[in-house]
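Re: weekly structure request thread

Next one in the queue (144 aa):
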Amino acid sequence: MDRFDHLEHLDKHLVEELAQVARETVRDELREQSRKRRRTAMLYAASGAAALYAGGAVALAVGLALAIGLPGWAAALITGALLGVVAYALRGAAHSDHGQHTPHRVLGGSPPGAPPSGLGMPYPPMPHTPPEPPVDPDGPHHRA
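Done, posted below.
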């Protein structure tokens, strides 16, 4: 066994080197993916800001168009009401499938048989009792 002792040191060194290479590879891959996602998130944020300013400009244009024939306060009130209606309609469109949601639905399968704690059944078992015989309301009444 003495002649294999030096190989044990080489094995440990090889395992450490392979682990280091794997860590660096994973780190580089995650860094590249996060860089791409960060860029995508920044573009979405910029497009949202541009859309916000565009919506403000449209609201201003509607208000100014209405102000041609109405007083300024009335045009602003009508524009605000229109924006409220649009916001309500968009909210309704976002929640349109809310009523179709089935409660207690588990995505990708069936609900687990036990709670995540692993302490047993999710509910205590119900004791089995035989059903009571039906009571005849017009039958004889006995006092015990």
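The CA atoms of residues 88 and 94 lie 10 Å apart. The chain has a mean pLDDT of 78.
Next request, please.
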